[in-house]
Design goal:
Chain lengths: 826, 208
């Protein structure tokens, strides 16, 4: 008969007898999780990218100090990309004898390509959303423009030579950037009026933003086409660089998604490995009979391989279906938090889930299956003949290479993959050895123990190799769950700490030195104290170790951008709290020292001890790099690339900058501030902050659901894994009963054995998790590592309870039914 | 045979010729090497020295797959512990060797033989639901269904009560006669051995 048909028949019969349930369950969980996570991550990623695009108001933005060649626009049209243009510059407005430095933004009719504007037609109306900016002849302005210039809605505002009607108060623009020094009260006008204002003359300081949107592939194509043609002064904006606070949050969340995928794969792998092992052991006898009846070795292998292929396909298809529903449910749960339009799932993600399932199945199931090939036909006469185990090399290298490929595929991060695989291997090996040694030593205890303790402990120590692999399997599952839980907690705490309720929502610039103390005093009267004011001197880095920076920087690097513009230089006796030393020492006593931010230092290849030359106005200043530090850009506080030691910059004119929190109801303080210190510029960042907080909230909820998913998978697999180790115990327990062991004795011995198994696995898992978390936090996620002592109590307790109860439940047949009944079933 | 304590001779100086159609009983005490001899004769195992010819083919020069092929084509087995596949029904168990041969009429042939052993009403039952005697009858049907040239039976009544045992033996010899099979029977039951045309006795691995 056709071997495949025979395989199918055997599979159906195995299925009928319940032989396959654990394996199928493990596989379905694996595929459901990997499909759900892969789909969810993919859709979330694309939704977030769309949202990120909203912060740029387009999918791709080129910034340039001058107009771009027409050919570039033509090429975009050929690719069917839509295109918009904005021009931003500062100009002084004069109305009613009042003067205001305003940030003008002239926008084309298509603006914004992504996201929307919010504005109100009067003080009392609700905000309304619009997808286009002001029409020709109109101006939309910040509320502060009206109060500062004593104007009302509907009045004329003269920008340069052109009178425009103020038609709306603008309350939100998607691409309002955090570039603090170019942000002034906004006046938005139509691009068509720009020429008539006659403000822009050759040499005027203006930023053009050429915005494009369209299909992701076409955008990518355009990106590639345009990149080599960009001039030094032009560049493509990137969400990760231009909105660092969002970029960091997004990339961390993406990494968590990646981590969750790995965790679920690991858990599923453990379950499949354990249940296939059980499956294979339970098929030794049947295989021996088949061999005896004349089945060849390769036929045996094909018979089982084909069964697994069918099983894998069915379970993967079911898992993919469940995974689909699971991620739909996730999005349904998150519908209030996510944007109304969520990106559609991609077919590739569905296939990834499906094939991940098959890959996990064969990666983990093949070694035990290969063992079946080696079953001797002689086993029909001599039951004790066990086939040789598949070589350890094959077992581990197969599973490992599979896991590595999957991790690499999910993280797209070689360093993280190597850290996880290398670390995991070393840890598993070291802990395996320690456990083995401990179990061998425990044998010495046996003669001193009472009978139930002896039987309980014997279960673990009589075959230390098998016990070690069992404990490691439980530990790895628990470890995966701990990792998922801990990283999530610390990630969320970190976000919460980063943006507490009183996160600064206002920046104040241009406070003159002689006004600093009066300014502080006024804020103090308004109950805003403990604010830090940082001096700012504008200067440009021109030489590193007497070599012009242009010769050092590489194109499109952060270093290049930082050296093409004036930087805000500051000095301080104390560095901001969240800045951390990377190398060198911060010496405030010595004049002429500078501390530099690590990423910029890296981009410009600057080390401690290097000499930097700056031009400030028309003068040159030299300073020595004594310190390199990391900066948290996402704290809504002033941050600096360059911090000098005090007195180094004292001969240059400086203004001060600060940030602080004002509750909505106290906003009138701002009016007092503006009145008393007319020179200052106040930037309200509430909108940016709110946007950021919303994103974090969305990510938090998503991450919580992923955690629940991983935990659910973990617990199910833990139960399945305990079940897969029961056969031998059932047999021995039944024999003991036949020999007259009481039910109470057996119950106690089983409880002791499983409790020990759970306790040891729990401790090993916590120990492993501390090592891995340390590596993960320090080298990958860049979070603070700390030992969580509660876990040391919780995890061993939970694992003891779970394994003890499951094992006890699984073995209840031994104590409940007659020994003969149980023996017949084995 | 090599063990962890050095080499161990289970069988030595056994020279034996069994003619086609002959029935041979191998008797001896426990541990005398009966089952080992059977496993060697059936090609389930290979001797560390010496050679075994089955239907003119030297088993010792065949690899494992070659021996499997030979077993499938020419050999039938009946075991003390029945050795039925637990997941399969009685009918499916008997069909199995035919299916492995690629026999298209497997179902019909298997059903016929089960009818012959008196189990037509038990076709769809799994071994777990059959008594010991019934299980051994299924095993007999499975052994004879391929009409093997040689049938090896290892203590076929060892797990059965005497009455059931007798019925099985009757059936075994009846089928053997009908199908003209060479029968090699391992037993420690002298009465059973006398029903064979020839008996050899093993003691400590030697024919006495």
């Amino acid at each position: 008969m056709n071997r495949s048909l025979l395989a199918l028949k055997l599979l159906i019969r195995d299925g009928r007898s319940g032989e396959l349930s654990i394996l199928v369950l493990a596989l379905i969980i694996a595929v459901t999780s990997s499909t759900a996570i892969s789909l969810f991550a993919d859709r979330l990623h694309r939704t977030m990218s769309t949202q990120a695009a909203e912060f740029l108001a387009a999918d791709l933005v080129i910034t340039s100090p001058a107009l771009i060649p027409k050919q570039w626009i033509k090429e975009a049209s050929i690719l069917k990309l839509t295109h918009a243009k904005t021009a931003e510059f500062s100009t002084v407005l004069m109305e009613n004898d009042e003067i205001l430095l305003a940030g003008i933004k002239a926008v084309s009719n298509n603006y914004p390509l992504r996201g929307y504007l919010k504005s109100t037609p009067s003080d009392y109306s609700e905000e309304k959303i619009s997808h286009t900016g002001p029409k020709k002849g109109e101006a939309w302005v910040d509320k502060r423009v009206l109060s500062a210039l004593k104007l009302k809605l509907g009045a004329n505002l003269i920008v340069g030579e052109k009178a425009l009607v103020i038609s709306q108060i603008i309350t939100y623009e998607p691409d309002k950037r955090g570039d603090l020094y170019s942000l002034s009260p906004r006046v938005m006008i139509n691009d068509a009026d720009l020429g008539a204002t006659q403000v822009l003359k050759p040499g005027s300081h203006v930023h053009y933003f050429f915005q494009f949107s369209g299909e992701a592939e076409l955008i990518a194509q355009y990106h590639q086409w345009i990149k080599p043609q960009l001039l030094v002064s032009q560049r493509i904006l990137d969400i990760h660089e231009d909105r660092p606070e969002l970029g960091t949050a997004l990339s961390r969340a993406e990494r968590y998604l990646g981590l969750s995928s790995i965790i679920v794969i690991l858990i599923a792998g453990v379950a499949i490995a354990m249940s296939t092992r059980r499956y294979s052991e339970r098929h030794f006898n049947a295989t021996a009979i088949l061999r005896c009846l004349g089945c060849k070795q390769n036929e045996i292998l094909w018979l089982y391989f084909f069964q697994f292929l069918i099983l894998g396909t069915i379970a993967s298809a079911l898992g993919t279906l469940f995974g689909w529903f699971a991620q739909e449910a996730l999005f349904l749960l998150l519908r209030d938090l996510l944007p109304a339009k969520v990106s559609a799932p991609s077919f590739i993600s569905i296939f990834i889930g499906f094939f991940t399932g098959l890959a996990i199945l064969f990666g983990f199931a093949l070694p035990p299956l290969l063992r079946l090939k080696k079953v001797s036909p002689l086993r029909v006469l001599r039951r004790e003949l066990e086939p040789l185990p598949t070589s350890a090399w094959l077992v581990y290298s197969l599973a490992l290479s599979l896991i590595s490929i999957l991790i690499w595929q999910y993280t797209q991060d070689l360093k993280m993959t190597i850290t996880i695989i290398g670390g995991g291997l070393v840890i598993t090996f070291v802990f395996g050895l320690i456990l083995y040694a401990c179990l061998i030593q425990c044998r010495k205890l046996l003669p001193f123990l009472g009978i139930s303790w002896r039987f309980g402990l014997q279960g673990l120590v009589k075959n230390p190799k098998a016990s070690v692999s069992q404990i490691l399997a439980f530990s790895i599952t628990l470890l995966a769950m701990i990792l998922s839980y801990s990283v999530r907690n610390d990630l969320l705490n970190d976000w919460q700490n980063q943006l507490p309720n009183n996160t600064p929502n206002h920046f104040v610039l241009n406070v003159f030195p002689e006004k600093v103390s009066a300014f502080k005093q006024l804020l103090k009267q308004q109950n805003i104290s403990n604010i830090d004011l940082f001096p700012v001197v504008r200067g440009r880095l021109v030489k590193i170790n007497d070599i012009a920076v242009q010769q050092i920087v590489s194109k499109d690097s952060q270093g290049e951008r930082a050296t093409h513009r004036d930087l805000s230089l500051t000095w301080a006796e104390q560095l901001p709290e969240d800045n951390k030393t990377i190398s060198g020492q911060w010496d405030i006593k010595q004049k002429g020292q500078v501390s530099i931010e690590e990423k910029l230092a890296k981009s410009l290849k600057i080390n401690v001890g290097d000499k930097l030359t700056f031009t400030i106005g028309s003068q040159q200043l030299n300073a020595m790099v004594s310190h390199i530090r990391s900066v948290q850009w996402d704290t809504m506080k002033p941050n600096f690339y360059m911090v000098f030691s005090p007195k180094t910059l004292s001969r240059y004119p400086a203004t001060y900058i600060t940030s602080f929190y004002i509750a909505e109801e106290n906003k009138k303080v701002l009016n007092t501030l503006v009145k008393q210190f007319p020179g200052i510029t106040i930037l309200e960042v509430d909108a940016i902050l709110k946007q950021f907080k919303t994103i974090l909230k969305q990510l938090t909820t998503a991450i919580n659901y992923l955690l629940y998913f991983a935990l659910l998978a973990g617990f199910t697999v833990l139960f399945a894994a305990v079940y897969s180790t029961l056969d031998n115990r059932i047999y021995e327990g039944t024999l003991m009963r036949t020999l007259g062991a009481s039910r109470a004795l057996l119950r106690k011995a089983h409880l002791i054995e499983f409790a020990l198994l759970g306790l040891i696995s729990g401790f090993v898992a916590v120990l492993m998790s501390e090592v891995i978390l340390f590596a993960l936090y320090t080298y990958v996620l860049h979070l603070d590592y700390h030992i969580n002592w509660i876990l040391w109590v919780e995890i061993p307790l939970i694992s003891t309870a779970c394994i003890m109860l499951t094992g006890f439940w699984g073995l209840r047949r031994v104590v409940k039914h007659s020994p003969m009944e149980v023996l017949r079933e084995i | 045979m090599l063990t962890s304590d050095g080499s161990l001779d289970i069988l030595s100086s056994v020279t034996l010729t069994i003619k086609s159609g002959e029935s041979l009983a191998i008797v001896g005490a426990s541990g005398s090497g009966k089952s080992t001899l059977l496993s060697l004769l059936a090609g389930l195992d290979t001797p560390s020295q010496g050679s075994i010819l089955l239907k003119g083919q030297n088993l010792t020069t065949l690899d494992e797959d070659g021996r499997a092929e030979l077993r499938n084509q020419s050999v039938g087995f009946v075991f003390q512990s029945f050795q039925l596949l637990p997941g399969l029904t009685a009918l499916e168990n008997v069909m199995l060797p035919l299916e492995l041969r690629g026999e298209k009429r497997a179902k019909e042939m298997a059903a016929n033989l089960l009818h012959r052993v008196g189990l037509s009403h038990r076709l769809t039952h799994t071994p777990l639901k059959l008594s010991g005697g019934e299980q051994q009858r299924v095993a007999l049907a499975r052994a004879f269904v391929t009409e093997p040239a040689i049938l090896f039976a290892d203590e076929p009544t060892g797990n059965l009560d005497s009455k059931t045992g007798e019925q099985i033996i009757e059936l075994l010899f009846k089928l053997n006669q009908e199908k003209q099979t060479t029968l090699i029977l391992v037993t420690h039951d002298n009465a059973l051995a006398t029903r064979c045309q020839r008996t050899i006795k093993l003691e400590s691995g030697r024919v006495v």
